[in-house]
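Thread title: Can someone regenerate the structure for this chain?

I was given the following input by a collaborator and told the matching structure tokens would be attached. They weren't. Posting the sequence so someone can regenerate them.
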Amino acid sequence: MPMPSNHPGHDVAVGQARHADASTAARLAARQALDQLRLTPHCYRQPNPDPAREPAQKPAWLLAFAGGQHDPAAILEGLRAELGPLPVIGGSGTGIITAQGAHSSGYECGLMLFSQALAPAAIIRVAGLEVDEAAAGRALGQQLNALALGPERLVLLFYDSVNNKTCPPSLHLCSRLLDGLHQTLGTDPPLILGAGTLTDLEMSDSYLFDGEGMTRHTAVAVVLPAGLRGHNTIMHGCLPSSDFLEVTRIDGARLLEIDGQPALRVVEERLRLTREELLARQPLPSITIGEKHGDLYAPFNDDQYVNRLVVAIDPTEEALILTEADFHPGSRIQIMSYAPERMIASAQTQTEALRERLTGLQPVFALYIDCAGRSMAFAGLDEDESAPVRELIGALCPLLGFYSGIEIAPFIGRARPLDWTGVLLVCTAGAPTSSGQTTAN
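Best answer:
Regenerated them for you:
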């Protein structure tokens, strides 16, 4: 059932509903958001509405994410039945997060509805991820460059994670998409955050809402209006389970050799697991390979690591299949393991620090992009690691979150794909004051 909002009457409203019927879930969520914008579906849909009943704030577009059990066409049908032909950005998620709770049954629909005051400056779509992610990224970067955006501007970037044109399905490589993007963006790019969409924890499918309809093998960038400023932080939760090792052979996302030995054999030895035990655990996003940046021998610090999930193993070649293809021969890596207590502690610490940086600013809305593997359903947690975000940020402004395949955020100087993280973005109105910051990386 839909839940009430803590922030009625804003330029942004959140709707969330669970229902076995996709169209019904979408309609319930849309009605809830419309009510918060002081609209009624009746007066909005009328061809010639009564001027005395004109809506206080007309909606302009929405972010929407739906659980993997729902048919995307039915979700769009339900949204359009209530909202009309507004641009819908978003797609599939393995669950939805709002201030009222986190749910991952697969039957959720969550949305964030924006008024005309927050209409996007541009919506840019690029197809062809299944052919060449880097080429798609370059095309996207060229179009963003033409807008002459400054570093203070904010861009939301979404793509569908799964390439279902391969057999078996594979992952679109976000690292290549972002490499191509940064090749053409120049030296002073806007702040870019976003995600890869995903329908389920088995990584079997994904889809994207690109503002025109439902699509696959596509990326969409939403350039938010100039009056918004972005503030972000990253939640972590992995610990090293090995000393430093060296990648000695790799083919794209297929990690073949570590320290001159078959990669699978090294993992078996270091984690003291048999091959049969590893094969029984596929998919394997609980095993992660981390690369530490900066001083390798400095004390452990989450902020130095880029981690890559192991999503499958190839026993024939004794290879590990990673989510991304950004390691190379010579990369110094460590086998990582997730630590549930660290996930919760990191979410609490990082959210508190970001909220402190928001002092003196006017929050407008917040978006929480959380790795699907961090959900209670997968990680086996007794506590919901999104609780600090929901409680501390949900009390400030409308909040929408979803469980994703890949998280995108600024990390070590540029936008990067991240694994096993939570990315929190809070958008504020107007220029920052002396007590706040425009970004928090």
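Residues 238-338 form one domain.
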